[in-house]
Amino acid sequence: MAVINNGRALANVVASQIALHAEYGGVVPELATREHLRNFPPVANAALKQAGIEAPDIEVACSTAGPGLPQALMMGSRAAQGFAFALNRPYLAIHHHEAHLYSPWISGEPPEAQWDEFEPNVSLIVSGGHTLLVHVKGICDHEVLGGTLDDAAGECFDKTAKLMGLPYPGGPVLDKLAEEGDPEAHAFPRPLLKNPGYEFSFSGLKTSVRYFLRDNPKVLEEDSGLKDLCASIRAAILEVLVAKTIRAAKKLGVNCVTSSGGVSCNAGLRRALTERCEKFGFELRIAQPSLCTDNAAMVGILAERKWEQARQPDSLDCAIRPGWQL
Question: pTM for the whole thing?
């Protein structure tokens, strides 16, 4: 829950569920929904208290309507719509990826939008469930260049980490181990790397790792072997992500590259994007870590901007859209 005023997050409260789902090695939808319901009142009260306001002071309510887990989306959307109905306020439904798309233009503590610094860019949205490459022509004006055909990059990180027996969430653990490994120790495929389009596919890489572990089980017995394997997997994923992003930026003639989503916290990705953008003269903006993972500040800041531009509220019966395409 966040409270936004003039592009600044007066409050941004997050209730994490990582510890709850760690026991199961992944998100359990039913448990996630229960936690949403249980945490909504205390998180809402904490946000209002942090912002120093009362509920009737809110002028517009918003929520993420998709994409995502249907049950979790339902909880958030109905809560925001109920809030708007009770106080006779307008309501806006926000696309989760669109909020990520503009998060690189939010910075500081408390987070504040830097709309005056915006410039056209090619943006890489990369998370556990989605990998997208987008041409952002202006604020609220963008075109999707390509997305994942199967497994997203974050999903590939998490699932290969699980194959190696790493704790949940596996992606960040794999990234940390990769920092001390040799990225050239093992040659894994770079799916669609030479394909001229901007689609991504990581299911084949995941399968390749599964077969490698089947044929080389002893690689996990030594610390150095595990680190080399992590570094090699990460190198394969990142080469595809970075190469396609830079290729798009060069073709479209933009001066700026941005990245957001949970995988944008990956140390290897940040370093690789920095090096490549410096080589080709692109400005690079990556969302700050607190705004890479799911948060309400980026959703609220985008909603405020949309409200200022259009002032067209969505229906209080607005349905969730779990498969909503950007």
Answer: 0.94
